[in-house]
Design goal:
Length: 217
């Protein structure tokens, strides 16, 4: 099984700069996402465009954050419809895939049965919107890659986590109206050639890197 790879906020060099929802991306430099504080957190809405692989965090017509994401593969698609965020966990680990620690060896594992100690794969900044489906930190590819979750870059995931709360509405559809106005300005990311992180690191708390500086402007 090819395990989903985890992306750290500072891991990717050569990605591009996204300065705001209204500014076109600039090529080169470290990847950076600007996210804005909502005036009224109860008015925050999340929209996911499956065809564009974009996430738009909106407060009315105001864009708080617009970023690329990875969505589910055809065999395990991201569910469409209206949902709400109902569970947030900053340092979540998967219960269905991860690693088995046997002495000094760390090997990929599916599920918790088997020899040694099981440690789930890190899924930082988890925001669950349906049973076993959530937004979380991970590598972002330019094509569907997940088992149904919505994966966000390590720079975007903690800011998304800060913007939403339990009860935040989520709409997931093939397209969104924001595709026409914001979609072309969202910087594309391709983590497909990034190396797999060291599994010995992935089983430790260091897998959950904390962002530096303020999350929201």
């Amino acid at each position: 099984m090819k395990f989903i790879r985890f992306v750290f906020p500072m891991a990717l060099a050569g990605a591009a700069l996204l300065t705001s929802c209204q500014t076109a991306p600039v090529s080169g430099g470290p990847y950076h996402v600007t996210a804005y504080k909502p005036n009224d957190p109860s008015k925050v809405r999340v929209k996911v465009s499956l065809s564009k692989q974009n996430v738009y965090v909106m407060e009315g017509d105001r864009c708080l954050m617009a970023v690329a994401c990875s969505v589910g593969i055809p065999a395990k698609p991201t569910p469409k419809g209206n949902f709400t965020i109902y569970r947030k966990e900053e340092n979540k680990r998967s219960g269905s895939y991860g690693f088995r620690v046997i002495g000094n060896n760390v090997v990929p594992s599916e599920g918790q049965g088997g020899p040694g100690r099981y440690v789930g794969y890190p899924m930082g900044y988890w925001c669950e919107f349906a049973p076993a489906y959530g937004f979380h930190q991970g590598f972002v590819h330019p094509y569907p890659r997940t088992h149904g979750c919505v994966r966000l870059h390590g720079e975007a995931a903690p800011k998304f986590f800060a913007l939403v709360r339990n009860g935040t509405p989520v709409n997931i559809a093939s397209t969104q109206p924001e595709d026409a106005t914001l979609g072309s300005k969202v910087q594309r990311i391709d983590d497909s050639k990034a190396p797999d992180p060291d599994p010995h690191l992935m089983i430790t708390s260091a897998a959950f890197q904390k962002p530096s500086g303020p999350l929201l402007e």
